[in-house]
């Protein structure tokens, strides 16, 4: 069985070395590593409006809809980055007079995000199993992190299928 440290090392290597192809609005394709993509997202100055539109209630609605619907729901590419920035901002504000309010909201947001990640990961794994060829319409519904997972799973499953067919069925 693979240890957690081994899996973490593999994922670290992948995110630092495997390029992701991103199609721009103008149709150009950019190749960028996952870690570079995350750095770019974190460097962007998200406006306060973009971050503040994410509230515990908004995130709870997103989780509820994701749980109830069979199809993967569309999220912006930077959804998790925005959530991360919101949580960091709220954690910094814990020293203010809103300690209890922020600590409850932080716990609620983290709990909801864990549920959301679980639901979406299950759907993404199923989608990759159904068709190991990445589908553009599905990728458009995913965050940057999910796109990375989906393409990686599709590549692994496609290689696995090719290996099995060649070795069992023949060439």
Question: Can you describe what's shown?
Answer:
Strand 1 and strand 2 (29-33) form a beta hairpin. Helix content is 69%, strand content 6%. Strands 1-2 form a two-stranded antiparallel sheet. By secondary structure, it is mostly helical. The chain contains eight helices and two strands, in the order αββααααααα. The chain folds into two domains: 1-43, no CATH class; 47-169, Methane Monooxygenase Hydroxylase, Chain G, domain 1 (Up-down Bundle). It starts with a helix and ends with a helix.
Query: How many independent structural domains?
Result: 2
Specify the overall morphology. Answer: elongated
Q: What share of the residues lie within helices?
A: 55-70%
The CATH C-level name of the largest domain is Mainly Alpha
Residue windows where pLDDT falls under 50 for at least 5 positions: none
CATH architecture of the largest domain: Up-down Bundle
Keyphrases for this structure?
171 residues; mainly alpha; Methane Monooxygenase Hydroxylase, Chain G, domain 1; 6% strand; elongated
Brief summary of the model shown:
This protein has 171 residues and is mainly alpha-helical. It has 8 helices and 2 strands.
């Amino acid at each position: 069985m693979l240890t957690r440290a081994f899996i973490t090392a593999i994922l670290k290597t992948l995110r630092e070395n495997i390029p992701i192809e991103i199609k721009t609005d103008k149709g150009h394709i950019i190749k960028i590593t996952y870690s570079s993509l995350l750095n770019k997202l974190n460097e962007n100055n998200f406006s306060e409006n973009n971050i503040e539109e994410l509230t515990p209630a908004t995130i709870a609605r997103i989780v509820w809809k994701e749980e109830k619907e069979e199809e993967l729901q569309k999220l912006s590419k930077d959804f998790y980055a925005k959530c991360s920035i919101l949580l960091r901002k709220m954690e910094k504000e814990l020293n203010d007079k809103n300690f209890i309010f922020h600590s409850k909201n932080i716990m609620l947001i983290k709990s909801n995000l864990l549920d959301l990640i679980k639901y979406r990961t299950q759907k993404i794994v199923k989608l990759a199993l159904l068709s190991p060829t990445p589908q553009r319409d599905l990728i458009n519904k995913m965050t940057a992190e999910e796109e990375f997972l989906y393409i990686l799973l599709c590549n692994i499953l496609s290689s696995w299928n090719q290996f099995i067919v060649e070795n069992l069925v023949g060439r």
